[in-house]
Amino acid sequence: MEGIDKSFPGVHALSDCRFDLYAGEVHALVGENGAGKSTLMKILAGIYAKDAGRILRSGREVEIPSPRAAQQLGISMIHQELNLMPHLTVAQNIFIGREPRRKIKFLLDENEINARTRDVLDRLHLQLDPRTKVADLTVARQQMVEIAKALSFNAEVLIMDEPTAALTDTEIDELFHIIGQLRQNGVGIVYISHRLEELKRISDRITVMRDGRYIDTVATADVQIERIISMMVGRTIYETSPEIPENGDQEVVLEVRSLNRGRALQDISFTLKRGEILGFAGLMGAGRTEVARAIFGADTVDSGEIYVKGKIAHIHSPGDAVKYSIGYLSEDRKRYGLTLSMDVETNIVLAAFKRYLGPLGVVNSSKTRVTADQYVDSLSIKTPSLQQKARNLSGGNQQKVVIAKWLTADTDILIFDEPTRGIDVGAKSEIYRLLNDLAHQGKAIIMISSELPEILRMSHRIIVMCEGRITGELDCAEATQEKIMTYATQRGGVIQTEPTTTGDTEFGTK
């Protein structure tokens, strides 16, 4: 790709960008949110049309007007939000629109579809039943289906956008093994990721973009992560510095007592203080998000009590939670946190909309504009205007709009579920600063995160969960990654170890 330009209304997304890829290499593409990585790759995948520049495939200049044209050139893209139909089988998803048919043309040949899928899965050494419904697969397995679908088009160029964002360490190992096989078979892989520590492990070269421009391409073996970060953001960011805000306040603003919901939540009890950041750690499926949804009234509980500022709170819906001054920033901000088709201004005032209605139910647009302007300025939300659609913002700025929404609603208790997932290193630093500022203002914060350095960096106290139970609580002064993982692999207070003749080891919890 040479001299690629692309503009959208109000945004010059790409300016004179370039990128190249060799057969059998993993070429990482990195940059802050809004740097233009995904836009550049969507041009290569035929999703967007370039305004200028040229694309060469095996030395021959080509035009790529559509995703189908890209597939015919052997180029496939696996998006961060997987494009699979959960109600269909693995085989049906892989060959959707290309199904072999029986002699009677309107009948599909399911046996042939399954046989062809088995061939593709065997090439990847994947133990998957072609007849399994996609809805029954883990996110990691669904990603493998996407890879298999790409290979069914005989892809020689495979673009992976944030492939490990929702995977566990074990699932990441499995994905990297598959990538290694593809590399050996001569497939060129473009690897977009914000997890910089992965790059040393998986990539051959790294290209850095910033503000829609090409910065540099370097050999992975020859560069330090600190140098990559510096090129990405154009400034030095001290990723490992501790940022735990001071907290001398002992006022308990939220107390959860014996919360139960089937096997998902079992006897959950904890307190949250004013001005405190309480970290929730644990492996995938530990029940952390279920705790947040129960407190926010999104899920019904079987038993238990929630107290807000010493008084019992009757929370049966998110609307009830807002009345008790509780806000919830979901890990899936696009699905649950934002109305993507609406503009920035509307999203910011949405949780407190009644406040902006006149006597006849007419929205006072001057008031909404003043409020939105205030938060765009104070949270440094990068947007061409208040009328920009939320879907067109970068991930970090979308997250800030969700935060602004709950600040507009004047909530005192904020639950952040994976607040920096899919966000680049520069935006992470801004989110961390914002959390600190909120804590200093007296907001009480629950922060759920799968990144242990983030939990250790930001929390006053850390609650660790495993399989629906709280298995440990740690003060920031005593917490380490090793201690957190010890608690995170317990079930009901028992450390999970290899079976021995003397049984499992008992482990007390705080």
Attribute tags:
510 residues, Rossmann fold, 3 domains, 23% strand, disordered C terminus
Task: Tell me about this structure.
This protein has 510 residues and is α/β, with parallel strands linked by helices. The chain folds into three domains: 2-233, P-loop containing nucleotide triphosphate hydrolases (Rossmann fold, 3-Layer(aba) Sandwich), CATH 3.40.50; 241-325 and 411-510, Rossmann fold, CATH 3.40.50.300; 342-409, no CATH class. The protein is built from 17 helices and 22 strands. It has helices at residues 37-44, 67-72, 90-94, 110-123, 139-152, 169-184, 196-202, 225-233, 288-295, 318-323, 333-337, 344-349, 365-378, 395-408, 425-440, 452-458, 481-488; strands at residues 2-8, 11-17, 26-30, 52-57, 60-62, 75-78, 157-161, 188-192, 205-210, 213-219, 252-261, 265-273, 277-282, 303-308, 311-312, 326-329, 413-417, 444-448, 461-466, 469-475, 490-491, 494-495. The chain has a six-stranded mixed sheet with strand order 6-7-8-3-9-10, sandwiched between helices. A six-stranded mixed sheet has the order 16-17-18-13-19-20, with helices on both faces. The radius of gyration is 25 Å and the shape is globular.
